[in-house]
Amino acid sequence: MQVIHTIAELRRHLAHFDAPAFVPTMGNLHDGHLALVRQAKPLGDVTVASIFVNRLQFLPHEDFDTYPRTLAADCDKLAAEGCDVVFAPTEQELYPEPQGFKVQPPAALADMLEGHYRPGFFTGVSTVVMKLFQIVFGQSKQGGHAVFGKKDYQQLMVIRQMVRQFALPVTIHGGEIVRAEDGLALSSRNGYLSPQERIEAAQLSRALQALAAQTLAAGSDGQAAEQRAVKALAERGWQVDYLTVRRREDLQPPTAADLQSGRLVALGAARLGRTRLIDNWEF
Ligand SMILES: Nc1ncnc2c1ncn2[C@@H]1O[C@H](COP(=O)(O)OP(=O)(O)OP(=O)(O)O)[C@@H](O)[C@H]1O
Ligand SMILES: CC(C)(CO)[C@@H](O)C(=O)[O-]
Ligand code: BAL
């Protein structure tokens, strides 16, 4: 496995391949990331993972400075999965000058849910992903494939729409959420939880499953079910940003007809102590 830190070297290396399969990450890798790498491997003729903590997608009060950076351990895990190339640029390499040009996703998709609570988040994500795609796929003859986890459900939708609207030569694949035995979605930020919080953290996925079940129950009032779900988590000590049921296709609130036809997703974000967790449940 090659570990590459510069754009020029990555481009030289990838010039020998036709169709990269790419998994972008912020590092501190767990089994959720490794499942994406396993999914990517058969899609292309070279498997590339990137590790870059992208300052552009963090608000000033968020955890950019303390985000875990564990490059050596990450490379061991990627090598064991048979990843071919790790691209781990420095900030100076990826942003040698202030990134004045940015990719602005449509407000209708990016200003709600995560974008409401993390303003600018999807602009930061779209900008870095566009840049990484230029670097990874820029010299490939056939374009390629990229895999994103469904845990970041709205992010996956934003990236799919970006690729469609800019006609990027990349096929986007969604990876299923990998969970711990108690249902907690694996996440780098789970490492911030105290032992007691780690036990409580499984309640987020349970709340989403309960919300899904109540939404489907005959005669249910969706808004009342959401309010009950928020209240129940708040009473356990969580600070809830949102727990809500949306249509999978556009993340808009479902109509009565949508409730009949299905294809819904319950999405949630909530803070336990200083740790903000997100999760979702398709139903
Ligand atoms: N449990 C999981 N199952 C499947 N994919 C995941 C999981 N956790 C993260 N991913 C995906 O891995 C990719 C890289 O995500 P990232 O490096 O931010 O990891 P993370 O664990 O989500 O970190 P954070 O805790 O900072 O949100 C994203 O596409 C993300 O959706
Ligand atoms: C896609 C991504 C690597 C962009 O920084 C990040 O948002 C993530 O890890 O999900
Ligand atoms: N997992 C998405 C990246 C972030 O939360 O910043």
Descriptive account of the structure:
- The chain is an alpha/beta fold and 283 residues long.
- The strands form two sheets. It has a six-stranded parallel beta sheet with strand order 1-4-3-2-5-6, sandwiched between helices. Strands 7-8-9 form a three-stranded antiparallel beta sheet.
- 40% of the residues lie in helices and 20% in strands.
- α8 (153-165) links the parallel β5 and β6 (170-175).
- The model has no long low-confidence stretch (mean pLDDT 97).
- The longest helix is centred in the middle third of the chain and has 17 residues, at 121-137.
- The protein has two domains: 2-175, Rossmann fold (3-Layer(aba) Sandwich); 188-282, Pantoate-beta-alanine ligase, C-terminal domain (Pantoate--beta-alanine Ligase, Chain: A,domain 2), CATH 3.30.1300.10.
- The structure holds adenosine-5'-triphosphate, pantoate (PAF) and beta-alanine.
- Adenosine-5'-triphosphate (ATP) is lined by residues 25-26, 32-33, 35-36, 148-149, 151-152, 175, 177-178, 185-189.
